Amino acid sequence: MRKDFPHLGFVLFFLFVWISLSTGMAMAKNETIPVNVGVVLDFNISLGRIGMSCISMALSEFYASHGNYKTRLVLKTRDSRRDVVGAAAAALDLIQNEEVQAILGPGSSPQANFMIGLGEKAQVPIISFSATSPSLSSLRSQYFIRATLNDSTQVPAITAIFQAFEWREAVLIYVDNEYGDGIVPYLTDALQGINVRLTYRSVISPVASDDQISEELYKLMAKQTRVFIVHMFTPLGSRLFAKADEIGMMGEGYVWILTDGLTDLLTTLSPTDINSMQGVLGVKPYVPSTKDVQSFRVRWKKKFKQDYPLDETSEPNIFGLWAYDAACALAMAVEKVGTANFSFQKSNTSNNISTDLDTIGVSQIGPDLLQSLLSTKFKGLSGDFQIFDGQLHSTAFQIVNVIGKGERGVGFWTPKNGIIRKLSFIDTNSNTYSTSKDNIGAIVWPGEPTYVPKGWVLPVNENKLRIGVPVKDGFSEFVKVTWDANNNKTQVTGYSIDVFDAVMNSLPYAVPYEYIPFGTPDGKPLGDYNDLIYQVFLKKYDAVVGDTTIVANRSRYVDFTLPYTESGVSMIVPIKDNKSKSAWTFLKPLTLDLWMTSACFFVFIGFVIWVLEHRINEDFRGPPSHQVGTIFWFSFSTMVFAQKERIVSNLARVVMIIWFFVVLILTQSYTASLTSMLTVQQLQPTVTDINELRAKGYYVGYQQGSFVLGFLKRMNFDESKFRIYNSSEELADLLSKGSANGGIAAAFDEIPYMKLFISQHCSKYTMVQPTYKFDGFGFAFPRGSPMVPDVSRAVLNVNEGDQMIKIEKEWFGKPNSCSDENGSSLSSNNIGLDSFWGLFLITGLTSVLALIIVLAMFLHKHRDVVTGENSVSTKIKTLATLFDEKDRSFHTFRLPDQPYSGSIEPMPAVTNFSPRPSTFSTQTNNDIPFSGEQGTSSSEHGDRSSTTPGGQSSPVIVPTVELANSNQERTIIPTRTSH
Fold first, then answer.
1. Contact 758, 572 (CB under 8 A)
2. For the whole model, what pTM was predicted?
3. CA-wise closest residue to 940 among 892, 876, 895
């Protein structure tokens, strides 16, 4: 027996250790604090089942990795059974009977609307991962936390798609509940901000039958708009597309865009549903496919298949990821609150009914738990989890295209960069926002067309556009309607018609149309242009084409394209010839200031040349009256280059070269201007001011049916002074008669008409400024028509090409040779001093410089007089006397035996000469002049007579011999003969 004691001790020790460990584990297990959390979802739809599986996985995996946490969330689930009242009853039961500290759910926005109030009253946070309606703003209750995105955050991404493909109209199809209504104001405002009009809003009941859905789709098919935005959940969304595919609305020309509510659930749809949505575009929040996400999907598929073996859902959607992150965030927040009193304070009421709202208690940790949730931050499966303003915020949306068995990403949108092809290509330093369709990948549109749908078509119940055209008598170059009574057909031609045809042919798509004259079968108009435009507003015509002017009052009823002609209203008046018949016409080519300046310079140049030549040139010497005459004669004779006086000074020659150039330019300009005045017609308008027409009470004309009548009334013209014309012939007749003879003094009309009229009568009439601004001719379409932007761009393309020039030449011919573009011949302007002051300046400076040089040389030569002691008056008289004398040192006055410039020049040979009788004279010694000098005594050069010793002079015969040298100059050689 004793031998067994050691074994017994070992057994007892083992039992003690086992009991100790078991007791420790039990004590550790008892230390965790359970916290009740409610879950309200629709378990009979995929969204609810996915959310529930993700929540349970989140808590299981979270506490497995956080075993040290003292709190444990205990889920209390309730099925809302897709009913708003059921969701509210479930929340009330959880709060009142289970005393849950928070509720995860509900699954839809309408269910959350009432539950938010319960959470606010009980201070229990309501955490929804799928209630996305903007109307459920956290501003309504601080206890509502949206662990998902607000639907309004996707609106900029949708509008960017519209900008990329330049669609101008859209139809919004949405479910008639809280979820559907919430996005409408945001989407409407955003589309209006980019000039996109919501032409129709189709509201479909959540419980609508297939027949009701088909009826609504047929209504949409009858409209022009072909871009549809669908905002709803499944299964209503899948039923909608099944019917659309059935009636043919998933073919070519249609565009379908899904919001994220339906795009996020594409993975839950059946292959049949996906097949009916081929070519659809959608936007959804972008979740990077990280390793954690991929690993979670593998685990989720295994668990989901075990929990719901009959559900064919193959992938968890974004709502499942948000449910996972929301559960983890709640677990963290509860742990941060600590081991507080997780109890409710019951309200004091005598009512024993458990469902009475007055009996709802208030959570003691509700405020602390709320603040803990708002401050929770972590990296979740869906990205960075952090609550801002009571909800999550997205950084990017993915644009997907439904192709084949599922979806394919074709691009991304971010608030900073707009549409981009790949997120990895984002330049973090770039702030460029792009809406280019080049950044979107290849898209397979419904019906698989090879082009981008334009977003609208003609209504299916109409084969052609009905184009109204005006019926008029005159100016048929613009629009002409020819009636064929035999065939009961009409032919419409004209400049405006050809332009419209060219514009429509340039569109990237075909638009059938037909012209319908706005007139009676006998060719009479049914009304004026305003009446014609109003027919579009009444939907009798789809458009108006013709010479219709874009004016403000008409734009209230129609939308105009960009103008295809010049704009404005101008005045046209007769012109008269103002050719002068005056005897003084020869003075008009030059202005008075140029005449005066020219005359002064002629005298000035003559004086300068006289100063430069007087002392060295015999032609500029003589009596004072002779010299004055020489100054005037020489200067004015240069006008016709008829001067005979020789110029021997180099300075004078420089002055004359420049002066000859000035005279040449001046005379040639004068001749050209005078010739123009005497030969070219000087056409001037008879009236140049609109105020003159009003003041003198002249009659004015306007084209019948034109808006110009209202313009003239606004200009305060007397209505009794109006006369109407229908054609250019009538206009010419009225203008030729004049206001006093039953005609008009002026006509007001649009520039295209005036140019056509001037081209036919440019020698008789002219357009007078100013031009009053109007927008020219344009094509009219119904207000909001999607064709207006496309046609306007086509108008620009046609105007910028050669086709418009060809059309103008065909209907208006080549431009005529009128003097200016307004059809008026302008008078020749007189030539003024402004055109010649540069030449006069150069001439004056040169002349003054020459005078300064000559004066300086003269004073330097006679510096003994200048520096002498005589008075100033005496010096001036002496210098004047010296200036009047000849400069004997100059070569023109050099004697044969007198050297020149310090050198002796050879005497020219004298041959073949004979003395003339007049050159011989007998004189006394007191009167012996040298021939060739005028009144100059011989004593100027020394006494050359013979005297006797007694002082008596003897007669001296001085024969004067005239020699001819090679320069044709006369050299006077005196010869003494003594008796």
1. yes
2. 0.62
3. 895
